[in-house]
Amino acid sequence: MSALADETRRLDQHDRLAEFRLRFALPLAADGSPALYLCGHSLGLMPTAAPALVQQELEDWARLGVRGHHEARRDWIGYAERLRPSLARLAGAREDEVVAMNSLSVNLHLLMASFYRPTGARRCIVIESGAFPSDRHAVASQIHWHGLDVDDALIELAPAQGAEDCDESQLEELLATRGAEIALVLWPGVQYRSGRAFDLARIAAAARRAGAHCGFDLAHSLGNLPHALHDADADFAAWCSYKYLNAGPGALAGAFVHARHRRADLPGLAGWWGHDPATRFRMGPEFIPATGAAGWQVSNPPILSAAPLLASLALFDEAGIEALRRKSLTMTGLLLGELDRHFSGQVQVLTPREDARRGNQLSMRLTAGRDAGRRAFEALGRMGVIADWREPDVLRVAFAPLYNSHADVARFAAALAGALADA
Ligand SMILES: *Cc1c(COP(=O)(O)O)cnc(C)c1O
């Protein structure tokens, strides 16, 4: 057995979080053996408590019909409220600064309706040049919808020569030189392709100095790293719940709006669920927003999609994001060491090495090139490794500390060695 396998076995024996793995449904490989699941960056695994919670809502619906709004074991009217304390802990926010609603790209649009208000020269949105396509489509369509020219008003910041990602200092420089033209910075918490984690407080501060709003897309970072959105002074943030939050495909997403912003003072898109709950059901014509992020809601929430999120957030509360973060850093640190020792000619790690700049995900370029790399990826699949391939040559693996074990790191390293040898 390899030195890494020995070490990871020892770490698992002393891991206080090890038992959480038993509370997830672990997928099987094609031959029926347990798969090595490293795709928490795309779709987190199902908490085994989720089906019962969904089933209870179906039963309450069957038993109660419309009365379920008030009389369900967990009343549907207040269902989204139940998610807030846990989301606030993960976001590093006050409870009234977070809300569970919609899906991610929709939330970006709703928040930009309030926080992207181009006026005169201050018309530009800054994103990274390698932004996730949905985010790029969202900001370009917002610019277009305001009657502006995307070529003029969309600034796609490119990494410096030879670098994988933009650096915080590049953003600071852009905001210092062209700040008066910038209305909004929309930036990821963790970059989906490289796995790089950004210093959100630093980015928000630079945007604020320039008089721009700052929003974060936390699709790859909420539930991955601890956040301190309130203290970072971000204007808003949005996330999905099916990646590291393990709430299932298309799950109910979430948003953060800093307490210094009041929906009542801002323009925005409204619906009855954003109305003050005290008077919502008086059904009056006037829109009186709920306080806090809840004022950005539009529709009543999908209970069947919220139930798995409730199951999942309970696990985060129990484990604690700080402890999860420590385990995550240990796992990715072990793999980085192993890649340095045994794979240096074959694999180029794209994720930064500093602890503060990486989360659960490591991205690596397979230097053999696209075709051999693709063959290695397919060989990994035959060995029961469920990972992710980004064209032309990037392998992404995530070690989710709730359900991945330290031994998964050793198993992956062994599989990778075999796959590269075959390819
Ligand atoms: C996963 C992801 C999305 C997906 O958007 P949906 O609205 O949930 O379909 C958008 N942006 C980023 C950065 C993502 O990682």
Describe the structure.
The chain has helices at 3-13, 50-64, 68-71, 79-91, 104-115, 133-145, 150-153, 168-178, 200-209, 229-232, 303-319, 321-342, 370-382, 406-422; strands at 36-37, 98-100, 124-128, 154-157, 182-188, 213-217, 236-239, 254-257, 347-349, 361-366, 385-386, 388-390, 394-398. The longest helix has 22 residues, at 321-342. The two termini are 24 Å apart. The mean pLDDT is 97. The chain folds into two domains: 2-34 and 320-422, Aspartate Aminotransferase, domain 1, CATH 3.90.1150.10; 54-317, Aspartate Aminotransferase, domain 2 (3-Layer(aba) Sandwich). With 423 residues, the chain is α/β, with parallel strands linked by helices. The radius of gyration is 22 Å and the shape is globular. Helix 5 runs parallel beside helix 6 (133-145) and helix 8 runs parallel beside helix 9. Pyridoxal-5'-phosphate binds next to helix 5 and helix 6. The site of pyridoxal-5'-phosphate has 12 residues, from helix 5 and helix 6.
Gist of the model:
The chain is α/β, with parallel strands linked by helices. It contains 14 helices and 13 strands.
Q: Structural class, judged by helices and strands?
A: alpha/beta
Q: Remind me, CATH topology of the largest domain?
A: Aspartate Aminotransferase, domain 2
The amount of beta strand, in percent, is: 5-15%
Poorly predicted sequence stretches spanning 5 or more consecutive residues: none
Overall shape: it is: globular
| Overall pLDDT score | 97
Return Rg in Å: 22 Å
Name of the CATH first level of the largest domain: Alpha Beta
CATH superfamily of the largest domain: Type I PLP-dependent aspartate aminotransferase-like (Major domain)
**Number of self-contained structural domains:** 2
**Can you tell me the CATH architecture of the largest domain?**
3-Layer(aba) Sandwich
In helices, the fraction of residues equals: 25-40%
